[in-house]
Design brief:
This protein is 67% helix and 0% strand. α1 packs across α2.
């Protein structure tokens, strides 16, 4: 599974199981929230590593910059976060 698939699977689990949702939200309040998320994901049978999560966000951002007209910093496509963890957390909070 790649990072996108793992995060999507975690969101599906959170929708089905309030206990898992609470665990994921509690992980976001730990001193090292990304590490806590990766540990919980691995415990749930979906190994997720911090560097993979960080790299996926950076790769997505780089691809988005290349796909915009000239890759200018003022492109509306570049106003979003490149941080997959923050995007995941926002989606989790909406559940």
């Amino acid at each position: 599974m790649n990072v996108d698939e793992i995060l999507s699977a975690l969101l599906r689990l959170a929708r089905k199981d309030p206990k898992i949702r609470e665990q994921l939200l509690a992980a976001s309040k730990e001193a090292a929230p990304v590490s806590a998320l990766c540990r919980l994901s691995t415990e749930l049978g979906m190994p997720l590593y911090e560097m993979d999560l960080i790299s996926a966000g950076e790769d997505y951002y780089a691809n988005m910059r290349r796909s915009t007209n000239g890759g200018g910093e003022n492109s509306p496509l570049l106003s979003g976060e490149d941080d997959y963890y923050e995007l995941f957390l926002a989606q989790l909070r909406e559940i």
